[in-house]
Write a structure and sequence with these properties.
- The chain has 169 residues and is α+β, with helices and mostly antiparallel strands.
- The strands form two sheets. The protein has a six-stranded antiparallel beta sheet with strand order 1-10-9-4-3-2.
- The radius of gyration is 32 Å and the shape is globular.
- The protein starts with a helix and ends with a strand.
- It binds FE2/S2 (inorganic) cluster.
- FE2/S2 (inorganic) cluster binds next to loops.
């Protein structure tokens, strides 16, 4: 074999033998797979997976009681402040007493049905008012004054001991 032929075959053989390894080494996805994960990476991946599986767990809300009721405060706080305000499943809730029958509680969605501003409870007037366009609502969410045409959404309430619970369904 001539020297030139030998060098050609040797060069071609080298190329065939090492080309797949070179391509694999230069592939970006392959490099990531070979990088060992740090403890922080593993923790982040685990947290992400848990968050994706249970998105509600990351929220700081009152834990659900049986039957979907959630505690929103105590009767003492209701009486001291004139209303209880809480957020359940990202829904702002305001609980008030019936003006003529204080044993009866009403839980309303504080989102104004007109343009979704958050209504405020006026303890002296015993009604909700919307700061955006002036709609007014009764203690039970009924429209007293427009421009809102729809009442506030209301929810079931109950009292267990001193706790006030609301079920947002
Ligand atoms: Fe409440 Fe318009 S958003 S009155």
């Amino acid at each position: 074999m001539k020297r030139r032929s030998f060098l050609s075959y040797f060069g071609l053989g080298w190329l065939v033998a090492f080309l797949p390894s070179l391509i694999a080494a230069c592939t970006p996805g392959n490099q990531q797979n070979q990088t060992p994960a740090t403890n922080g990476d593993r923790a982040n991946n685990t947290a992400t997976a848990e968050t994706a599986e249970n998105p509600q767990e990351s929220e700081t809300e009152a834990p659900a009681n049986g039957n979907g009721f959630q505690a929103v405060g105590t009767l003492a706080a209701l009486d001291a402040e004139g209303r209880l305000a809480a957020t359940i499943n990202e829904t702002p809730i305001i609980v008030v007493r019936h003006p003529d029958n204080p044993e009866q509680l009403f839980a309303s969605n504080a989102t104004c049905p007109h343009r979704e501003c958050e209504v405020e409870w006026q303890t002296e007037a015993q009604q909700f008012s919307c700061p955006c366009h002036g709609s007014e609502f009764a203690f039970d969410g009924a429209v007293l004054e427009g421009p809102a045409r729809e009442p506030l959404a209301t929810y079931e309430t109950k009292v267990e001991g001193e706790e006030v619970l609301v079920k947002v369904s």
